[in-house]
Amino acid sequence: MLVASAGCTPGSTTAEQMSPRLMARASMEASATVAVERPAKAKGNALASFKESALVSANDGISLEPVTEPVPGADQQASSTGGPRCPAEMALVEDRVCVDRWESSLVELTPSGERPWSPFDPIDGRERRVRAVSWPGVIPQGYISGRQAKMACAASGKRLCRSDEWVSACRGPQDTLFPYGALRQRGVCNDDERPVHPVAEIAALLDIKSEELWTTAMNNPLINQLSHALRPTGERAGCTNAYGVFDMVGNLHEWVDDPGGTFRGGYYMDTTRNGEGCKYATTAHSFGYHDYSTGFRCCMDPEQVD
Q1: Whether pTM exceeds 0.70
Q2: Most C-beta atoms within 10 A of its C-beta, which of 56, 120, 161, 208?
Q3: CB atoms inside a 10 Å sphere around CB 284
Q4: Could you tell me the CA-to-CA distances from 265 to 96, 193, 200, 235, 246 in Å, in that order?
């Protein structure tokens, strides 16, 4: 399915209780599920409905809620393991840097307060209206450039991680190639690789021209909503180490602070082509590039010890 309702279980919300945003999301989920799971029959009315739902999300400014609410009590648990030198949502790595435990999400700053930004929408032109947050159990932000990620971290009083800081956090205190150990274990992190490439699947469903497949189509908001693709932060509970950072291999590529453009860790379709595990690094794109696979997490300097 494409977008799950936020903070509720199936059957817990009636049609009368649903907000217009939730109703739009439910409609999108229903139509898109038909289109994705039965593509041969989806080229007619179901596909038209699918496209219409996508346009509602893109053009009417509907901001999708996180897939689940932040885990209750996570802040207290994090502070007991991370120590007072870092904020609760960050881990102290090598006693020298605080690193977000979960891949970053965004919240939008509005006159009435903050609200979650859809993790499926780029922020082009709205960079100064959002800031980065690190929450467990939510879909992290894709479709973001390194430059935008750096701004989002700064808006929260943090910074984009340097490459060496990112690698240290990924390898853990045991300095292993993968967060969980020396050898790759299938399915521990979100690196399963779907049988059909998500860009190709969406392009086929929406009749996107072949010449656009690896250009404009790469930022289609529906890509990360396909099944067996991007997962909520921390869902793969074994994809961590003793520092308590999650998803540093797989799920989303993560930008590091390199003006030349580097993202690390691989994503759900590739954690091998540009290095194994924590060694993975892509340098082929500019710092201003983004697509469905690019995400980030933030770092900051720890509180000094007296």
Answers
A1: yes
A2: 161
A3: 9
A4: 21, 14, 23, 17, 11
